[in-house]
Design a protein that fits this description.
Pnp Oxidase, Chain A; 5 helices; two-stranded antiparallel sheet; 7-stranded antiparallel sheet; alpha+beta; about 15% helix
Length: about 210
């Protein structure tokens, strides 16, 4: 078995190792709006749901490869205090990939990728009309993780409104995964589909309820 001490591995190689092992990763397609009113849209795969009370999402924003400056997403949500997480499906993969590019702040990624921005209900950030699930979020907090190359800012958002397409929603409060067609991020240029499923029943709890 290979054994590694992270302090002995170059930062860029450590990043490659992490994204090759921690797979598949869901994709947060985060939309924000700048103080000048320019919509921004970018994907982040260090992402997950972390709580249901309050309902919360978390994603990690690293620094630009070219300038080592904060990405527009971070600057925008810090200014506005809100953002939208739009979920990425297989039909939207190409558009999502376009928005992964590095662009100047004045570029509207919605327009660049041929997507439709629509107003949110509770927040200032626009939503991606083509996405089947959109979470409107207010900023809870930003947690700094390290400094310099490879560092990031962990963004925690509280979900304040949810939009789900009729085509994938099943009562009560369930999602048809086959109709949904989400994709996951792997390493390099690779992604994965969710089309090979299996089920495992969780063992029954052996812990007695409190008070019994």
């Amino acid at each position: 078995m290979v054994e590694l001490n992270p302090i002995d591995v170059p930062q860029r190689d450590l990043y490659k190792l992490l994204i090759g092992v921690v797979v598949p990763r869901p994709i947060a397609w985060v939309s924000t709006i700048s103080p000048d009113g320019v919509p921004n849209l970018a994907p982040f795969s260090f992402f997950n749901g972390v709580a249901s009370n309050p309902p919360s999402l978390v994603f990690s924003v690293s620094y630009r490869e070219t300038t080592h400056q904060p990405k527009d997403t971070l600057a925008n949500l810090q200014a506005s205090g809100d953002f939208v997480v739009n979920m990425v499906t297989e039909p939207l993969a190409t558009a999502m990939n376009i928005t992964a590019g590095e662009y100047p702040p004045e570029v509207d990624e919605f327009q660049r990728a041929g997507l439709t921005p629509i107003p949110s209900i509770q927040v200032s950030a626009p939503r991606v009309a083509e996405s089947p699930v959109q979470f409107e979020c207010r900023l809870n907090q930003i947690v700094p993780i390290g400094e310099g190359p490879g560092s990031a800012r962990l963004v925690i958002g509280t979900i304040v409104y949810i939009h789900i397409a009729d085509a994938i929603y099943r009562e009560p409060y369930k999602i048809d995964i086959t109709a949904y067609q989400p994709i996951g991020r792997l390493a390099g240029s690779s992604y994965t589909r969710v089309n090979d499923l299996f089920e495992l029943q969780r063992p029954a709890s052996e812990i007695k309820p409190s008070g019994s």
